[in-house]
Structure formats: C-alpha cells, structure tokens
Amino acid sequence: MSYAIEGRTGPWEIVVGLEVHAQAITKSKLFSGAPANFGAEPNSQVSFVDAAFPGMLPVLNQEAVAQAVRTGLGLNAHINLVSRFDRKNYFYADLPSGYQISQFEHPIVGAGQIEIQLADGTTRQIGVTRLHLEQDAGKSLHDQHPTKSYIDLNRAGVPLMEIVSEPDIRSPEEAGAYVRKLRSILRYLGTCDGNMEEGSLRADVNVSVRKHGEPYRTRCEIKNVNSVRFVMLAIEAEAKRQIEVWEDGGTVQQETRLFDPNRNETRPMRSKEDAHDYRYFPDPDLLPVVLDEVWIAELKAALPELPDAKQARFTGDFGLSSYDAAVLVAERATADFYEAVAAGHDPKQAANWVTGDLFALLNRTGRTIEDSPVSAAALGALLGLIADNTISGKIAKQVFDIMAETGEDPAAIVQARGLRQVTDTSAIDAVVDAVLAANPDKVADYKAGKDKMFGFFVGQVMKAMAGKGNPALVNAALKARIG
Amino acid sequence: MFDLTLAGARAGLRKGEFSSRDLTEAFLGAIETLNPVLNAFITVTPELALRHAASADAALARGEHGLLTGIPLAIKDLFCTQGVRTTAGSKILEHFIPPYESTVSANLLRDGAVFLGKANLDEFAMGSSNITSAFGPVVSPWTRNGDNRPLVPGGSSGGSAAAVAARLALGATATDTGGSIRQPASFCGITGIKPTYGRCSRWGIVAFASSLDQAGPVARTVEDCAIMLQSMSGFDPKDSTSADLPVPDFAAACRRGVKGLRIGVPREYRSDDMPPEIETMWQQGLAWLREQGAEIVDVSLPHTKYGLATYYIVAPAEASSNLARYDGVRFSSRTDGADLNELYENTRAAGFGSEVKRRIMIGTYVLSAGYYDAYYLRAQKIRALILKDFTDVFRTVDALVTPTAPSAAFAQGERMDDPLKMYFNDVFTVPANMSGIPGMSVPAGLDAQGLPLGLQVLGRPFDEETVFAVGAAIERAAGFTALPGMRAGGGA
Question: What is the bridge-based pairing of β-strands B171-176 and B72-76?
C-alpha cells in the first residue's frame, strides 16, 4: 500500500527529491591550506585565499577529490574522468569572493543509486543524479551586535559534496530512510562525519504533490533542514500546504522555503526579487579535473565493506534476520563491535546480546558503542562461558550487569562470586529428591495431569541451588523421577 | 648613468664602477623631478629602495651576483607588494596594504632587485591609454614634433612604460590582458614581452581577466627584457594555471640570430585604415629579417577579425566576477549603507571608475541567463578557433611579425568620447592573449610626427626563445636610438 495524503478531492501522491550537502572530511579546505575543523575561534581558520584577498588563487585539494570519488564509488555511481569547476556568482557578506566555486555543468560523479529499507521489510532503489564538489560559505552571526552582523569565515571554503537524488522518493518515511542510509554510507567510507547537529550534513528538500499517474507538478525547495526527523516533518507539512493550495483552486509557485519545526510549517524564505541569476561560468583560475583510472581503481580496492554488503553477509553467513542485520550494520562501529563479539561464538546469540542487553545498557548509560562500558572482547568471553556450560544464560545476565558496573572480566566475576553452574548430577539429584520430598501434594497434582507443575519443580530446584544448577541436567533429573 | 641599459648597469655594478646605492639615489632623484609631470608612479618607496640597495651592495661586496642584484625597477601597482600599498589604480583599493608579496615580485627580490615604487596603470588594468587610473593619467615622456600637447603612454601598463622610457627605472614589471604590455611599449619606444600564459605566476597579481592576464617585463632593450623575464618566470604551485616547465636561458636566445627561421606575415592584420607609415615600417622590419637570413612567408589567420569582439566578451565576463570581492566588507574602501545591499551599492559606486563599471556591466550582461550561450559560450568557441589558427600557422612558420598597434600614441582627450574606438587599440595584440601565445613589442622607428612605432613578434606557446631571437634581430637592424623629450639626464 503506497503512501498517500488524503485531500478533499481524494488521495495525493507526494514526489520528493533531496539535495544533501555533506562536508567532506579533509585536513584542509577545498582550495586553500587553512584547516577545515569545526568549532574553532571565529576567523581563526582563514587564509588569504578564503578571505578572497586581491591576487589570491585557488589550488584544488587532492584529498577532497579523493573523498568525492570514494563517495561516488560507495554510491555505485559513475565517476566522471573529466570534471570542471564553475563560478556561481552572487553577493553575500559571508561569501568573500562574490562567487562560490562549484561544479555546475560537469560534476565529478554522475548517476548512482541508494537502496533503502522500509519498516515493512521492503526495499527500494532511489536514484542519485550526481555528486559535485563545492565550497561552503562562511557564517553570518546576526546576534552579536544590535545593528551589525558579524562574519565568521572559518567555514568559508570547507569542501562540500552535494549529493542530488532523483525525484524518486514517495513518502516521508522513504526520505528519512534515504538520509539515514546515505549518512551510514558516508560514515562507513569516512568521507563525512554525518553530524547533522553541527551542520556537516544538511538537506535541501524538493517537494511536489500530484494525483496518481499525473506528470510532476511545480515543486518547492525547503532549504537547510538539519535532522532526519525534520526532513520527514517538513515534507509532510509542505505536501499538505501544497494540496490545500491546489484544492483551493490556486497554483503552487516555485520558490525556496524554510521549515519551522516549532510551528511545524514551511514559509517562504525570501521574496521573489531576490531570485538570483548566478551567472555560472567555468572558473578560469582552475584547470579541469582529470582523473586517472588506475588511481580510481586503487581507491575502489581500498574501500571498506559497505552496509549493504555487510548486511547480506550477516544474513547469509550468520543466519541473522534481515531486521537484526540492518540494525547492526547501520553504524560501522556497531557492526565492527558485533563481529568482534561473534568471532568464535554463536552469531545469532551474539546478535541477541548486542541488540538486546548491550543496546539497553548503552541507552541507560547514555554511552555510544565506541565507549561502551562492556567491551566486545568481554562480551565475547561471556558468550564463551555460556557455550562451555560454565554459567547458564540466566546467570549470564547477572554477570553482564556486574561487568557493566565494574568493568571486571566475566570469568573473574563468575569465579569470585561462585556463580559457576553446578553440573555434578549427584548434587542435582540430591536437591531434586529433597524438593520432591518436601512437596508430596504437588507431586500428586502433577501425576494427576497438572503438567504445569513441572515448571514449579524446576523453579524450586534452581532456587535451592541459587540459580546455578545446569538447567538441562535439572530437567533430566526431574524427568527421571516423576516422568 | 641614465644611458645605461639594465645589462650595462649590471655589468657596472659587478665591476664596482658604481654601487646600487648610487644607481638607486640617481633614479629616486629623477623620479622626484619628473614624476610630478609624468605621474608614472602612484607610490614611490625611497626608504625601501635604499634598504634593497644596501643589501644588494652588501651582496655584491661578498661577490654574490644575482640575476638582478642592485638593479632599480618599477613595479606595476597591480602586483601585491608586502607592506607597500597596492591600489590597482583604483580608489576602491586606495588604502590596501597587502600582507603578502606576489610570486613575480618575490622572484625579482630573490634575485636582488631594488624596488623604486609602484607604477601607475589604468584602473584594474582596464584601458589602453592610462586615463582610467583613479590616481590621474600618466603623461607620455614623448611629444609630437612641434606640439606640446600631452600624449598618452598607452595602457594599461602606462606607468611602467613611461617610467622606463623616461629613464626613471631600468625596467619595470607589467601585465598584459589584451595588449597592456606591448601597446604601451610601442607608444613609449621601449621593449616589452608578454610571455606564454602560464610562464609567470599570477599569484599575488590583482586579477582582471584570469584566463588572459599574464605578467611580463618592459625595459629598454630586448636583452634587458630577457634578463627580467628570466627572473620573473617559473612554476608556482600556488597558481593552478602556472606551467611546470623549466625556464630557458632567454638572454642566450637573444644572440641566436634568425638565419633559417620562417617568419609569417598574417594577411588579416592588413587593413585599409592602417596608416601608411605603419605599413612601411612593417615592410621595413620584414626586410631587415630577410637580410639576416630569415624567410618571409605570407600566412592566414582567418579568425583574427573576431578577436577583438570576443575579447570584449571574455575579459569583461571574467572581470565582472573577479571584481565582486571589492565589496567593502573586508579590505577595500567602504561607503556605508542602511543594509548590506546598500553597502555594496554605495561602496562600488564610489570606489570604481566609469570604465571599470562599464566592463562589469558588460560582463554581467554576457553571463546572464538567456545570454550566456549567445555571448560567452560562443566567444569561447571562437577563442578555440583563434588558437587553432595559430597552431596551424606555427606548423609552417617559427614566428609571426605584425605591427603592435594600429597607430602611434595619441593625445590625452583624443578618442576619449567613444569607448569602442579606444578598444580598437588592442586589435593586433588581443589574439595573443586569446590564444595564450607569447608576444613582444620592439621599437622599429618613428612616425612622421616623431613618435615611436613598435613591431610585434608572436611565437609558439612556450617558445619565447624564438621571440627573443627575432626581436633582437629587429632591434639590431632598427638601431632605434630616439629618446623622448622628457627623460632623466636629458631634455626638459
């Protein structure tokens, strides 16, 4: 059942395309040697090139090119062996040269695709139109002075990868899945940290609506949306607004809008007179970017395993459910952690522990997988203790809690606290005999057909053994006596 | 001392006949006397010059003979000079003191040069007569026979050319976007070379039109230009368009001779409105080369006629973008406004002169949506055809010889009413910029009014050596010894 918004005139389909701006991870800026760090003192990371001083010239950062190519490869996209930088001309105080160096006509990466997974288990391919490299602008600070704006040029010239999707997205959920998947791929590749709060990943969302089977109607662009949730909310709010306009007999005007999460609505960003003519033309300060196929092949060979491949391996080799595998591969650190836990142990059991107890622990303690209180090695060791019957699964939960608390090694915990499972059948037999002797009435009930009483006897035996009886042996001993 | 060429002064310094301080003081004195009339310098830096001279003298005393140790030069005020105001001839940069040294001027300093000051120019190098400078026009040291009306020195490197011609410096840096080295050299009776695009780094030179701008020297002789260009050239990783090629020995190339060279004469450079004395001088130049063993060949450059029109699309387009940075926000002069747009409008209205504004308007127009294909894109296609013309003829000839400019220097006030007439000055020089090839202007004679006329030598990309060889051959045969009326150590 495909997504639709019900209007007065019937259901409406929504059509969404995304332009994601991802800051490429590089030491220095796209065209200057100034550092590209986040969070430094204002105007402390600015070269004369970034500030567009007279006579300064851009020199392309090769690492930014490599990051764009890696990303293109990760999106199964066509890498253009020849691309070009153009100037996008407009005046703004945080754009020192009066033009942004971008790639307009000939981007470095062409068509690719991203597979998204939806809650109902289905997958869809979303087309990627292109990826191009461009400079970020500086920041205007309007809250530092009653009448003046301050300009921070630290961000000016930081490399951005603009990743443009086809208008293939048909629901807020798909848009959310697309951004999450793209973010995951970028983080796997190490080409963008994906931090939406700090603005290193931000999306412009193009939304239109139509009746089923119609050609596209006019779209609006919602600028600079900075979280997955807001992307989804903004699409819904904007689609509803457009449906209202159409149903009231009006016409949607192509314009750029902003999403206000407080009021859950979009509103026009600037008046029409500010519509720019960017006067794109090839930047005469830069030569065309010509890539060597051997170099691209080297980058490709060095790419890490990406989430789709990893998920396929986790379901295929480890027998995990598609859902569990998807959860584990979303973040590379989680997948790596899981694989370390699973090494030499039952992979399904490992998946249950990671997605269950470990995730719960991280949630509770507000930690990330990178600084988990229980290391992958320790969790693996715990699984080892279960596998060799040193402890039961139930005791293991207890041990896990102690591990989380103290950071101690599981074997040491079991040893120090005497949690080792009892596998001595004569000891178990003795407890079983005592429990049966103490509950003759219950034994009679059981024999009269009350099968449920069996669980009661198991519980009593385990309780008497402080939980340390080997569950299988306890069951066997009971079966032998009361059958 | 003022009769010395750069090469001669260098020999004298090395022999200890005089010191760099002697030379520098002499030139500073001459500037003090003549600059109020000529206005060739926007900024004179006597203290800096004497400091440079002192270290040059110390180096010479240690026996360290750099390429230019102790040689006083003028620097076109388009080259950023660390700690020394750099205006580009514009009010908008009136107070700009760069915190860095351009690569080309740094190369000259590395080789021991002495900087006398910053030479006047057309505002942002946009002009052919030096009347667009916000710091007043440069007056040519030359006058017509029996006519004292001030003449233009050509442009945009008019201050550089006037300073060298009037002997206020042994040489000067210049830049050439559409003829700004060659045309003023021709008007002022001196030599200038625009090397191949990419030969000199553009880093630190205030940009006019990035794909056309190229630095080069103006000096009294072909050899002097060779010595200066040797120092100015070289690969610079800070300029992506700079060529990673070794720099040949240009001075040695001046001594090669032209025997066996094939010299092309492009028939499209002939026109009915060309003054007969320019045609005569051209024929004379070709005869000199023939006498020295060169073969003269008629060739065709069919797209020449489109050169000027396409230049006046490409150059303003790039300029309109390059000059966007002068917005009053950071380093340029600011005229405040109620909001950001008003700040831009007021700053740029007050800071730019009318020729700069005209070119920004033209450039903005030709890049606009709906006009880009018809103007800029088409101009770039024709540019490729102009380059192809040259590539084709250089398969059969080693160099081309043409007049440098369609006229001798004109008076201030003449041709000022019609910008298009002014643009026509560049008709013979522009194709070299459009195609990136090297071009030199060498003085070949005087017209009937006693004004110098130059011949232009064009060569293959990165074959400045042949250009120097041909230029030197013309220079030898021409024996051009005429001097302007206003000059240091001479006339009025």
Answer: parallel
Whole-angstrom Cα distance, residue B443 to residue B468?
A: 13
Give the minimum alpha-carbon distance from A41 to chain B in angstroms, rounded to a whole number: 18
Whether residues B321 and A98 touch (CB distance < 8 A) is answered with yes
Taking an 8 Å cut-off on Cβ atoms, the answer to whether A87 and B98 are in contact is: no
Task: Kindly state whether residues B222 and B119 are assigned to the same domain.
Answer: yes
For chain A, positions 283-322, list CB contacts with chain B under 8 A. 284-287
Cα angle A324, A328, A331 (rounded to 5 degrees) comes to 150
Give me the residue spans of the domains in chain A: 5-296, 305-416, 425-482
Residue B252 shares a structural domain with residue B325: no
Question: What digits encode the pLDDT tens for the residues A47-90?
Answer: 999 999 999 999 999 999 999 999 999 999 999 999 999 999 99
pLDDT at B429 over 50: yes
What's the pLDDT score for residue B492? 43
What positions of B carry a catalytic annotation? Answer: 76, 156, 180
User: What is the rounded distance in angstroms from the CA atom of residue B267 to the CA atom of residue B279?
Assistant: 12
Q: Which chain B residues touch A if contact means CB-CB below 8 Å?
A: 79-80, 86, 88, 93, 96, 98-100, 102, 202-207, 209-211, 237-241, 317-318, 320-321, 324-325, 327, 329-331, 340-341, 344, 364, 367-369, 372, 376
Q: How many CA atoms lie within 13 A of B190 on its CB side?
A: 36
Which range among A188-192, A403-407, B470-474 shows the weakest confidence by mean pLDDT?
A403-407
CA B42/CA B84 separation, integer angstroms: 11
CA atoms of A324 and A327, how far apart (whole Å) = 5
Give the contacts of B209 (CB within 8 A, at least 6 positions apart).
A284, B177, B314, B315, B316, B317, B318, B319, B322
Q: Domain end: B197, B227, B256, which one?
A: B256
What does the pLDDT look like over B99-119, one tens digit per residue? 999 999 999 999 999 999 999
Contact partners, residue B467, CB within 8 Å, separation at least 6: B193, B399, B438, B439, B440, B457, B458, B459
**A28 — contact with chain B (CB < 8 Å)?**
no
Domain membership of residue B122 (yes or no) is yes
**What does the pLDDT average to over A136-143?**
92
Other C-beta atoms closer than 10 Å to the C-beta of A117 total 18
Within-domain flag for B267: no
At residue B436, φ and ψ (nearest 5 deg) are 85, 0
What's the domain range around B345? 305-380
Query: CA-to-CA distance for B116 and B25, rounded, in angstroms?
Result: 10
Residue written as token pair 């997504």: A3
pLDDT in tens, A2-45: 899 999 999 999 999 999 999 999 999 999 999 998 788 999 99
Angle between helices A172-189 and A62-74 (to 10 degrees): 130
Please report whether residue B101 resides in a domain: yes
Residue A350 belongs to what H/E stretch? helix A347-353
Rounded to whole angstroms, what are the CA distances from A242 to A13, A235, A265, B34, B446? 11, 10, 12, 74, 76
Beta strand pairing call for B191-194 and A99-102: unpaired
- pTM score of the predicted model: 0.91
Give the domain CATH number at B80: 3.90.1300.10
Q: How far is CA B181 from the centre of its chain?
A: 2
Domains held by chain B: number: 2
d(CA B163, CA B30): 10
CA angle B316, B317, B323 (to 5 degrees): 75
A129 membership: H or E segment, kind and range: strand A123-135
Q: Judge: B202–A57 Cβ closer than 8 Å, yes or no.
A: yes
The tens digit of pLDDT for each residue in B82-101 reads: 999 999 999 999 999 999 99
Do residues B54 and B122 share a domain?
yes
> Are B143 and B219 part of one and the same domain?
yes
B473 assigned to some structural domain: no
Q: CATH class for domain A425-482?
A: mainly alpha
